[in-house]
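Thread: "does anyone have the structure for this chain?"

Original post by V.I.:
We have the sequence but no experimental structure in hand. Need at least a predicted one for the grant figures.
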Amino acid sequence: MFRWRKKLSIGLTIGLSLVLSLVLIPTLIAQEIEPVTILMPAPFADSTRDLVKDFNQKYEKSIHLDVIRGPLETEAISDLAISSLLLGDTPFDALLMDITWLPKYARAGWLEALDNGFDESDIDDLTNGAQLGNNYQGVLYRWPLVADIGLLFWRTDLMDKPPSTPDELVAVSRNLQNSKKVPWGYVWQGRQYEGLSCVYLEMIDGYGGNWFNPDRGTFGLDQKPGVKAAQWLTDLIQEGISPEAVTNYAESETLQSFKSGDTAFMRNWPYAWAELQKEDSRVRGKVGISTMVAAPGASPASTVGSWGFSLLKGSKHKEAVIEAFKFLTSKESQLKMFEEYGYTPTLKSIYEDPIMLEKYPYIIDLYKALEVGRMRPETPVYAQLSDVLQRNLSESLTQELNAKISMRNATSTSEQIMLAAGGLMK
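Reply from O.Q.:
Generated one for you, tokens below.
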């Protein structure tokens, strides 16, 4: 009897153990799957949807990636992220951030360093333009997803080559307008918003100046190149090279004007290329791209406007997040983003690939623009400086003030902002 009970007890124990194993093992496995959440602007959330599915399939037993589709507007995304960070318990592990946000977020202590996730060889694999804007005080806090840069789009059916100087652009434009080939010569982002700051940066650098000199701690807005840049943009409107309505143009309005065949030149971002090749485009197959014009003796400049991933402070899944970053920015992923959505790759190897060069010969021009990429002032108070520039430059464009006075005012106010902020730059 005792032996029978002992056997029964052992059998029940083994049976119970098996039952518990069947119940607990899936639970334990499920607990090992790390959840990763990244907040992205709506366009990037949409364009990375398939990549996220591929990632979750590859890491189905260890990581699950969720992308939170944020607002369309850039600043709305930043406001959402900051609001959650100020609460001290953000629901996001990571953020896809605009390049100008980094100093502000890093100085506030909202970001985790990525130095352990990416080494020097990874950085060397990036194009020159993509290497910009990822560090704060020598620490890597951001990894680029796309390498956005400002470009000059030109009509290959109207000229053999693009202009290289501001004077050449005006001369070609005027000649084409006089011969009734186009109503307008050049369209650009003239609305009072961030796009205007990007346009101005390319021109002040193109005249041999700079918006801010961090080594000297001085602004160049009211110096000769800064005033020339403002005056040139103003003259484009006053002389009819650009329409008066350009002061209300953002990227979409600029694209529509060029796409409809109404203008010879356009300043825009790389995404526009794919739009210009669509069937409804009147300039399909008639477009070239180049770097922005520059004065003789000065180097052309392209504003860097890329988006990149940052790891938010307090994330409990740091290694898993970095795995997601690496997957989404891999060569395979970048090729997919480029071919399907027109996003500019960050890796040198893509631009050096003979197959890519044969299939997309224009990427060599993208690479050239990345080589002359320029950063906007890298400071936690950049938003304030940009707002000052936009307001004062708009007064010049609309002839409320002449260019020299508007840039003098912009310099004075910018200096006051930096003084109040303790001279904050990097």
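V.I.: this helps a lot. Residues 2-32 form the longest helix (31 residues).
O.Q.: and The chain has 18 helices and 16 strands.
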